[in-house]
Amino acid sequence: YDTLRTRFQQMAFLNKGLRISLRDERPDAVVTEGEPGEEVTEARHDSFLYERGLVDYVEHLNRVRKADVVNEEIIEVESEDTERKIALELAMQWTTAYTENVFTYANTINTHEGGTHEEGFRAALTTLVNRYARANNLLKEKDDNLTGDDIREGLTAVISVKLSEPQFEGQTKTKL
């Protein structure tokens, strides 16, 4: 049940507005609630619905991580190229944690070994932050660029791409 619960919750995060319900009707999988003498026994069940999708996912990850957020607003990006049949969703927020927490998916499959979508995100984020820092005189001409590791410190991000013909490495599909 717990394995299915975790995966169904993840699927609901990745598919904004989709309700997924799970009910365990095995005889030994009942939950008893209530005051003594007024207990109610029913099948264990969970239902997941996330109207904001990846934004809700990032909030959840930071809550579980118990990390204080640096910026209250979660940055959200959605883009689609209908000609190439590819869609991208991204949500990210910086926290006071020392490590990054980046999760990537291709067609709702967790690509925990990364892939081109993660590499592209990392390169684009590093370039964008450095360009912004230089344009706003936060970095002077003589200063070195910020490193990707420095920029991503404390970052929680979820990247989800949907492709018509994904090319995964290996049988486990953990790298795009």
Can you describe this structure?
Residues 53-176 form the DNA topoisomerase type IIA subunit B domain. Keywords: ATP-binding, DNA-binding, Isomerase, Nucleotide-binding, Topoisomerase. Belongs to the type II topoisomerase GyrB family. It holds the Pfam family DNA_gyraseB. With 176 residues, the protein is an alpha+beta fold. The protein has two domains: 1-51, no CATH class; 53-176, Ribosomal Protein S5, domain 2 (2-Layer Sandwich), CATH 3.30.230.10. The chain is 28% helix and 29% strand. It is built from four helices and eight strands; from the N terminus they run H-E-E-E-H-E-E-E-E-H-H-E. The longest helix is centred in the C-terminal third of the chain and has 20 residues, at 116-135. The chain is globular, with a radius of gyration of 20 Å.
